[in-house]
């Protein structure tokens, strides 16, 4: 489940590849409802706290950009923040990375990023996935079929988007906030709960 505050930008990055089909499941305690069950036929992957690796601006304490309280992970970042380490020139972010499969030295490709502009959840800065999501909790499911190199996005149990994606040799899930190059807010925030990973062999 995710909650986006007005003026914020949501980033979900899915870098995936290899054998099997994976699903990232963010389940709302009380969603807006839906008829489909994207998790049907999948097996839950057990995750520990150590699987949730926080990346946040290197020049401020993590607690100033991330909070985990009562089962809710809250991320926020400012336009002028630093990257998550001194070796990268990427934009500011506050997010969690869950490593799924990592081949040493293997290249990876960005499979899916979901952005929010003016309250519309989008595939990168293109196709609209869901409108009117500011200041709401909603259930987000992302299914990556590794063999077919496709992704599907579900909002509140309904399929809203699908696309073919670039294969890779390493993959992981990320969720949180990550500033992009256009339409930047001065502060971006998102909240997540009930993060669950599923697989199908």
UniProtKB/TrEMBL annotation:
Residues 99-198 form the Alginate lyase domain. InterPro entries: Alginate_lyase_2 (IPR014895), ConA-like_dom_sf (IPR013320). Pfam families: Alginate_lyase2 (PF08787). Keywords: Signal. It comes from the Eukaryota. The keyword Signal applies. Residues 1-28 form the signal peptide. This is Alginate lyase 2 domain-containing protein. It comes from Miscanthus lutarioriparius.
């Amino acid at each position: 489940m995710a909650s986006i505050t007005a003026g914020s930008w949501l980033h979900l990055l899915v870098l995936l590849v290899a054998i099997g089909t994976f699903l990232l499941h963010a389940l709302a305690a009380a969603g807006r409802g839906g008829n489909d069950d994207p998790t049907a036929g999948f097996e839950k992957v057990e995750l520990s706290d150590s699987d949730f690796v926080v990346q946040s601006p290197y020049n401020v304490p993590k607690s100033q950009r991330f909070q985990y309280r009562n089962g809710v992970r809250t991320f926020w970042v400012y336009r002028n923040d630093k990257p998550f380490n001194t070796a990268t020139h990427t934009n500011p972010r506050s997010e969690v990375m869950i490593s799924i499969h990592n081949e040493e030295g293997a290249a990876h490709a960005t499979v899916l990023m979901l952005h929010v502009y003016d309250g519309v959840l989008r595939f990168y800065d293109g196709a609209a996935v869901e409108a009117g999501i500011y200041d709401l909790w909603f259930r987000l499911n992302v299914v990556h079929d590794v063999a077919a190199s496709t992704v599907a996005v579900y909002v509140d149990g309904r399929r809203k988007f699908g696309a073919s994606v670039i294969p890779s040799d390493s993959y992981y899930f990320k969720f949180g906030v990550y500033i992009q190059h256009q339409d930047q807010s001065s502060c971006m925030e998102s909240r997540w709960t009930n993060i669950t990973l599923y697989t199908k062999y």
